Amino acid sequence: MGDVRYRVGRVATRVTKKRAIDEPRMLVKVEEVLARHGGTWQIRPRGRRKWSGPRGREGTNERLAALAAEGDVGGAWQFRPVSSPSAIYVIRKIEVEPPVTVSASVGSDPLKLIHAAYFERFPGHESWGIYNCRPIAGSTSWSQHAWGNAEDFSEAGVASEDAERWLFANRNRLPISELIGRRRVWSSARASEGWRALSSSAHQHLDHWHVTAHPLMTGSPPCA
């Protein structure tokens, strides 16, 4: 496993190219965000519709610290001030310079092939997570992450153009079912349509590439 780091920022904005931060710096960054707003805060895991009940600044800080420290790589937790609900922030737990091979307990077999090939080609990139038991953000449908059948790849907080070209060029050589990044989606099920624009209501994936392995998992994941 590579070094665990964090990114803290505002939702729906492009993450700037800067060094991912360690846990102590993450806690300081969260405290700086909380200090910008008065009153109470709400928290939710990314992908969930329902927010928690309101907490004070100290309780919010403690809860976010616990979630981020205990959560899996790829986990993301949103928080917002009750007084300004459109000002949504997020903590995301990532892995810097992950190993080329992944353990037998993490990721589907097809995804392991994609992971190995990707980090052999881009050893300096980051993994933003494989396994995450959650629905697709803003949806009630299960994410392929819930089966460990998808991985998010980033180049220092950006959906890399080099990665886009490489992933698309290798979409048939590798067991790739879907690519999402830079406001677009490609899927093997609709390959004849090429790249398609993401819905304006969807997460635009400017900060990472979401890659789903083939075949797609269906039904309910074991973690449900």
Describe this protein's structure.
By secondary structure, this protein is of the alpha+beta class. It is 22% helix and 23% strand. The protein contains 4 helices and 10 strands; from the N terminus they run βαβαββαββαββββ. Strands 1, 2, 3, 4, 5, 6, 7, 8, 9 and 10 form a 10-stranded antiparallel β-sheet that branches. A hairpin with an 8-residue loop joins strand 8 (184-187) and strand 9 (196-197). The longest helix has 14 residues, at 57-70. The model has no long low-confidence stretch (mean pLDDT 92).
Count of runs of 4 or more consecutive helical residues: 4
* Largest sheet data: 10 strands, antiparallel
The structural class is alpha+beta
The beta-strand count equals 10
Order of helices and strands: EHEHEEHEEHEEEE
Range of strand content: 15-25%
Number of domains: 2
What distance separates the N and C termini?
26 Å
Average pLDDT rating = 92
Q: From the alpha-carbon coordinates, what is the Rg to the nearest angstrom?
A: 17 Å
Unreliable sequence segments: none
Shape: globular
Helix content, binned percent:
10-25%
